[in-house]
Input
Amino acid sequence: MLLQNKNGIQFLQFESFTAHNVMHGFFMRHGGVSLDPWRSLNLGGNNGDPRANVVENRRRIFDAIDRPVESLFDVWQVHSDTIICTDSPRQLDSDPLQADAILTDNPDITLFMRFADCVPVCLFDPATQVAGMIHAGWPGTVKKITYKTVLKMVKNYGSKPENIIAGIGPSICVNHFEIKKDVIEQVINRLSPDGDRFLIYQDGRTYFNLQTANEYQLNLAGVVKVETAGVCTACNTKDWFSHRGEKGSTGRFGALLAL
Ligand SMILES: [Zn+2]
Output
């Protein structure tokens, strides 16, 4: 990954995406206006941080990659396996649709999502010029949202999986993601026969590797070019918001992607 800094706004980029001039970034928590516990570049709404702060922070991340805020398309992330293909930005005075993956082939759109431990997956097909972003927490992962989004890219845009490049952004590491009985059962049953390979059993506890589970779904769909950030949000709460790492009292960092 490449670390960029623009006017105090720091963000990570995938080298493989930058090589194709795909504008994107995962924004660290510094350089915003929000106060504790959202300090400071919080992009998440409805968590107590005044709306004006979130709007100002949003302006700053769009500025950092030279994209107009009016180009954004975002969704109300609800841990579903719903995928939206969009060819126009979301009107800023309209409500976002409920979904957890977005695809577009329109270069005038900037895909925008928010994270704090869940796995961000970015997709780009240089051949068909299609970009996608996925939000995969454990519910989306057991619903195979990453696998389904690649299939949608193939079906709707004619992408070939072998052409697609993918990136897995900052998200919680396996050592920080203990899960309990109900989730363990869902991982094993719904990801059958592969679920067990993403679980680690240690000292009577069970941990779920969200990152490798989503990388596996990319591979299963035929995507072999995958760049992984290798950054854990909960290991690095100084730089990233982490729901687990900060016991639910935190903000959300932003991710942007545009053709
Ligand atoms: Zn960690």
Summary: Residues 173, 175-176, 232, 234-235 surround zinc ion (CB under 6 Å). The chain has one domain: 2-250.
